[in-house]
Design goal:
The structure is a homodimer. By secondary structure, chain A is α+β, with helices and mostly antiparallel strands. The first copy, chain A, has twelve helices and ten strands. Chain B binds a DNA duplex through helix 2 and helix 3.
Chain lengths: ~350, ~350
DNA sequence: ATTAGCACTCTCGGTAGTCGAGTGCTAACC
DNA sequence: GGTTAGCACTCGACTACCGAGAGTGCTAAT
């Protein structure tokens, strides 16, 4: 529903004032702040109308108005203008992410860290899913008399290492045999296909050789599982405890939710592929009913992939947060793309 | 200072009641709970004396008494009896730690996790310092056309991997050259000695070969730095927010402190080598003035090494926490010992 | 459609009063 | 000398009440 120009301006002013101060604002104060050329009564009439339509609410009779979720929603969808991040801001983000451009995981950890620092909110990020990736190569490094490390390189750029133990003494020749046999079997196989039955059939194929390698096979299975599962990281979560008008119990519940990888993963999975803002009850989780999530997905190979998101109180500066997130997301897309190119072109 | 038997019993009862309920307790209630065969007036006299001596305090005139830090201290030092963890408890801890006996880091992460779960408090752990360790071996795995991974194995059982990039195309032969040259240079060198100047002199020694390896050398330096630096991990920190009589602002400060690796590392460093309890102001940090830390050090090679500690409110069940910590610590000592034996005997 | 005027409502802060828990003290007792 | 009964006293928790101030909605006039 479209609002008349003046009403929109009033709604906008109320929201911006509230985002800044956290205090309800009344008709007279609003005129002082915005320099509207009408009387307070007129503003009051408009405010009453906006309240009827569900955009505003009065915490109590003798207080001013504050926005409802619907009010924020209208503001985000129709009023707010997004200022792109400045060049120096972009440089800063780029530099910070570049430092940890070792692996997708570390890039996304840095991304969450940077988003949290720049927005002052909690930030979460998920690594790209490796469901469609394949095993690119497996290598071995001897680490002890009876231990060695399997290095599994996946086509999505993820590299996983896993130690394993053998009963017998490991020699370079044995690792050489493992290398040949296992690359033959596993190279090109989808990560998702490497489960216990697959490992068992593979072991059967190796005949007596398989007696030597239960540890290796388990290590590879574990590594493959690690490479395909979505990793979640959260940063700056405790910042939510320092929000000016925080409700202790609610903040605590949000933190608990963000620390639970499983629930969080499910939430991130269901976020839309483009930049989106999810306010209060729009989030499916009760824990988040007084929080807002601004989320975006970065691209890998041209397709929307993992999520980067900021989580904070409904009262946040949406414009600023969106612009930061989009900038970080672009940068992550680029760096992960480069990483995959370098690792996979072998 | 020694206390008379009845006074000690009264102090003990007050502390145990307060640990359980969190409420101040008065003379009459105390008699009901403990079944003391004296009148409330007698108890009151003793309580007044204990208060004069600094073991108890009255939050306000019309409330009962609660222990002071000195009271807890006396309790911990002279009264408390420690029940060792049951066999099934020990088995549980052992099993949990064994699952992640891959590396010292992961053992200590699990240790912190287990301590936090069993005590219901926040738990922190630090990895053994690698200051005295040496480089055992360096290996290489090619991960892409222009990228490879250096695997640095240290004598303390820590294995660090680090990716590096070269401008030229990497071949197995080049990695072979790296392997030979770098193991010759670095094997047996103390991790602490591998700093920028050392790398530069090494590079000079390689002559024109060094032009090919700036990335490798940096990777090794980073890995060595990672292997020798003490890693800190904290688990269950947000549990502090759910403590029954938590003061929001204080809990928040503690959490902030525990999340700051640098400050936390300094605190852990200065903890004594044996099991110890540090109550309230006994902790050097103001943030912890209403917290207590129960800490212990696990052994590596027979010497007290890293720390495992539980952090919670002063009002905690010290006996239980100490017994859990000592059990976990023993288990960690054993597992890390085995790990080093397997990896270093090569 | 806008505005001035006004009665109304509700929160916030401060004050006063009551209740109850727990104490310290005194004097008596074993 | 240690123990106990009795009692006056203190102080926080809770409730009720009141006035000030902010902000509103409504009405009637412009």
């Amino acid at each position: 529903m479209e609002l008349a120009a003046r009403k929109e301006k009033i709604l906008s002013a109320i929201i911006e004032s509230y985002i800044q101060t956290g205090e309800p604002i009344g008709s007279k104060a609003l005129i002082n702040e915005t320099g509207l050329e009408v009387s307070s009564a007129t503003v009051r009439n408009d405010m009453a109308d906006l309240t009827n339509k569900g955009y505003l609410i009065q915490p109590h009779t003798s207080a001013g108005r504050i926005p409802t979720r619907q009010g924020y929603r209208y503001y985000v969808d129709n009023i707010m203008t997004i200022m792109p991040v400045s060049q120096s801001g972009r440089d800063f983000i780029e530099a910070r992410l570049y430092e940890s451009a070792d692996s997708p995981e570390s890039i996304l950890q840095s991304a969450a860290q940077v988003v949290s620092e720049l927005t002052g909110l909690a930030a979460v990020a998920s690594t790209p899913s490796g469901e469609d990736s394949r095993i690119h190569k497996i290598s071995f490094v001897q680490t002890g008399l009876h231990t060695a490390m399997a290095v599994v390189i996946a086509s999505n750029g993820i590299i996983k290492t896993k130690l394993f133990r053998c009963e017998f003494v490991i020699t370079p020749e044995i690792l050489e045999v493992f290398d040949r046999a296992l690359n033959e079997t596993f190279a090109g196989i989808r990560l998702a296909a490497i489960n216990r039955p697959f490992i068992q059939t593979a072991a059967a194929r190796f005949g007596e050789l398989s007696l030597f390698m239960p540890g290796v096979l388990m290590a590879i299975m574990e590594a493959a599982k690690g490479a395909r599962s979505v990793g979640i990281c959260a940063r700056g979560v405790t910042k939510l405890l320092f929000m000016p008008d925080v409700n202790f119990v609610k903040a605590r519940a949000v933190i608990e939710f963000l620390n639970n990888e499983h629930d969080l993963a499910r939430l991130l999975e269901n976020l839309p592929p483009d930049t989106s803002v999810s306010i209060g009850r729009e989030n499916s989780r009760v824990e988040l009913e007084s929080s807002a999530i601004v989320s975006t997905r970065y691209d890998v190979g041209g397709n929307p992939s993992g999520v980067i998101a900021a989580v904070g109180p409904v009262r946040m500066d949406y414009g600023r947060v969106i612009s930061i997130l989009e900038c970080v997301s672009d940068c992550v897309s680029r760096l992960i793309g480069e990483l995959i190119d370098t690792n996979a072109n072998q």
